[in-house]
């Protein structure tokens, strides 16, 4: 049974308002929910739902005709917040972040409805009450179209303008309150709001959306929060508490869990794509600079372009030269690039030797001496280093131990932590039914099935992953796997999961919340499980 809302605000009229600002900050509430348990965590998340729920509910209810869909989208948005509570880059700006999540969630529901052709069925719902905004105006299809157009254009704004609009016009903060959260002068925030409203007005006008006169300029003064059902807020907090207590399995409605997983996947892919584009553009810019240098002329800079368009904090000379820490998404891309190079080396070894590398280089009596990471050195551009090893001496022998410090860059950790310079996170799985089982390596066979020892398929079998702890890169030590034993620790570089390499050479980011049954299935190469590859993790394409 749907939880009926008494009022749904029309953002064209009010751009939503409200939300309590007293008490703890958003960052403090998130920290309390992420690090505490029981009543403290529940009260913190309840405060977040109370503070930001009206805006999220307004977005979901304004974009989705079916109230059941709006409730699912609302709960999924806050479920995503619960799962990401400890990893938000700007915890004091939960409102703008949640606005983006709510938009993605509502759009995902709409896309699913269109695929299933449910629009006609929803329109024919018997006794369905038409929602109304704060002024009593019915949310007819044409009004909903205007609402959707408004949100599309807000989402298209540059981040600094979008954030200001969400804080002040959608959540009803004053310019002073928004300035404190942003760490900017009030004049800067006011300028951004003015420019954002001008852009919105122009873009909406070009799309044929006629706004009431002056509504964008007076939205803060006249905004009114949408009525968020109390029962919905309570049930949402209970769902979030299942995350806090680690009891998500079976405690979260299937529709909400599926929605949140889809949104998290979309957010991750967007982040990775943004990083890839940034790296490509940076490379292109570096090439352009090199060309200019070769031509012996410095690029001319327009004097007007040097003037800031709005007030902004001035950076000190030391700040200008400081190198910023890479964001996690960029580090994930770097780690995936390392693993793809390792994959190319393993596959080149396969082409030459007609079998994958075994887990180690062995002595005549079968004692493991050096890792497979040493065996593939000639195939990753490190032939000179490979030739320095004594292949009949252990990794920590008097000669080979001196080569530890020459670790190739491809094996180095990408996260700046205090790890020994000889260590690596990249390890394979050894043991029964794992990729590195036995002492010979998996053979390549001529015929329709080139790898009969991998009946599960190379695309569904893990080859190398980021382990939870490092090992010396030359040491013949990897992750020990046994079907009846707990999993070895995985993912020592990233908070939410780890980058993995499948035997076909693909890289994926696997979330820590992966179903243990799926993890067992992809570690084994001959378990004969049927796996939906989309459930393994997000593909990180080169």
TL;DR of this structure?
With 542 residues, the protein is an alpha+beta fold. It has two domains: 11-118 and 129-243 and 254-272, no CATH class; 328-539, no CATH class. The chain has helices at residues 11-14, 26-35, 39-63, 67-84, 94-115, 119-123, 141-156, 159-170, 175-182, 186-206, 219-222, 230-244, 254-295, 317-321, 328-353, 372-375, 383-388, 516-523, and strands at residues 360-362, 368-371, 423-430, 462-472, 479-480, 497-502, 507-511, 538-539.
Structural class by secondary-structure content: alpha+beta
Would you count the extended β strands for me? Answer: 8
Order of helices and strands: HHHHHHHHHHHHHHHEEHHEEEEEHE
Strand content: 5-15%
Unreliable spans: 1-22, 126-137, 212-226, 288-325
Name its key features:
alpha+beta, 2 domains, 18 helices, 8 strands, 8% strand
Can you describe this structure?
- The structure is a single chain.
- The protein has 542 residues and is α+β, with helices and mostly antiparallel strands.
- The chain has 2 domains: 11-118 and 129-243 and 254-272, no CATH class; 328-539, no CATH class.
- Helix content is 46%, strand content 8%.
- The protein has 18 helices and 8 strands.
- The strands form 2 sheets. The chain has a 6-stranded mixed β-sheet with strand order 5-3-4-6-7-8, with helices on one face. Strands 1-2 form a two-stranded antiparallel sheet.
- A hairpin with a 4-residue loop joins strand 6 (497-502) and strand 7.
- Helix 3 (39-63) crosses helix 12 (230-244).
- The protein is elongated and about 80 Å long.
- Mean pLDDT is 76; it is low at 1-22, 126-137, 212-226 and 288-325.
């Amino acid at each position: 049974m749907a939880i009926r809302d008494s009022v749904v605000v029309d953002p064209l009229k009010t751009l939503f308002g409200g939300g309590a600002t007293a008490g703890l900050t958003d960052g403090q509430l998130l920290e309390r929910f992420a690090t505490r348990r029981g009543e403290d965590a529940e009260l913190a998340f309840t405060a977040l739902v109370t503070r930001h729920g009206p805006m999220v509910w307004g977005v979901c209810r304004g974009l989705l005709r079916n109230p059941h869909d709006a409730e699912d989208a609302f709960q999924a948005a806050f479920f995503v917040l619960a799962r990401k509570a400890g990893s938000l880059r700007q915890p004091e700006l939960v409102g703008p972040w949640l606005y983006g999540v709510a938009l993605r969630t509502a759009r995902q529901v709409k896309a699913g409805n269109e695929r299933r052709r449910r629009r006609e069925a929803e329109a024919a719902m018997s006794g369905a009450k038409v929602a109304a905004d704060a002024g009593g105006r019915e949310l007819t299809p044409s009004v909903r179209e205007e609402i959707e157009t408004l949100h599309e254009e807000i989402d298209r704004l540059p981040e600094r303008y979008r954030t200001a609009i969400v804080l002040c016009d959608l959540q009803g903060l004053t310019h002073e309150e928004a300035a404190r959260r942003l760490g900017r002068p009030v004049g800067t925030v006011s300028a951004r709001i003015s420019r954002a409203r001008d852009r919105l007005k122009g873009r909406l006008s070009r799309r044929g959306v006629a706004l009431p006169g002056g509504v964008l300029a007076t939205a803060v003064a006249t905004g009114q929060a949408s009525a968020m059902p109390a029962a919905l807020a309570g049930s949402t907090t209970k769902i979030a508490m299942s995350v806090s207590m680690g009891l998500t399995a079976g405690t979260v409605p299937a529709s909400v869990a599926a929605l949140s997983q889809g949104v998290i996947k979309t957010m991750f892919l967007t982040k990775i794509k943004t990083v890839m584009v940034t790296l490509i553009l940076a490379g292109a810019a570096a090439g352009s600079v090199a060309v200019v240098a070769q031509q012996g002329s410095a690029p001319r800079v327009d004097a007007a372009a040097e003037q800031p368009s709005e007030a902004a904090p001035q950076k000190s000379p030391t700040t200008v030269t400081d190198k910023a820490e890479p964001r996690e998404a960029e580090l994930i891309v770097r780690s995936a690039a390392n693993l793809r190079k390792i994959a190319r080396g393993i596959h080149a070894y396969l082409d030459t030797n007609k079998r994958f590398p075994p887990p180690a280089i062995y002595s005549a009596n079968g004692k493991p001496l050096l890792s497979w990471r040493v065996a593939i050195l000639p195939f990753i551009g490190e032939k000179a280093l490979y030739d320095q090893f004594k292949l009949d001496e252990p990794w920590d022998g008097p000669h080979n131990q001196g080569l530890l410090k020459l670790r190739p860059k491809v094996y180095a950790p990408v996260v700046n932590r205090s790890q020994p310079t000889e260590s690596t996170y990249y390890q394979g799985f050894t043991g029964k039914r794992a990729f590195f089982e036995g002492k010979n390596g998996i053979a390549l066979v001529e015929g329709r099935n080139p790898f009969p020892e991998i009946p599960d398929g190379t695309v569904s079998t893990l080859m190398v992953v980021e382990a939870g702890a490092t090992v010396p890169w030359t040491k013949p030590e990897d992750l020990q796997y046994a079907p009846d034993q707990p999993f070895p620790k995985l993912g020592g570089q990233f908070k939410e999961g780890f980058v993995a390499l499948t035997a076909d050479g693909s890289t994926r980011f696997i979330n820590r919340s992966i179903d243990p049954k799926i993890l067992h299935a992809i570690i084994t190469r001959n378990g004969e499980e049927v796996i939906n590859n989309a459930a393994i993790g997000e593909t990180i394409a080169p």
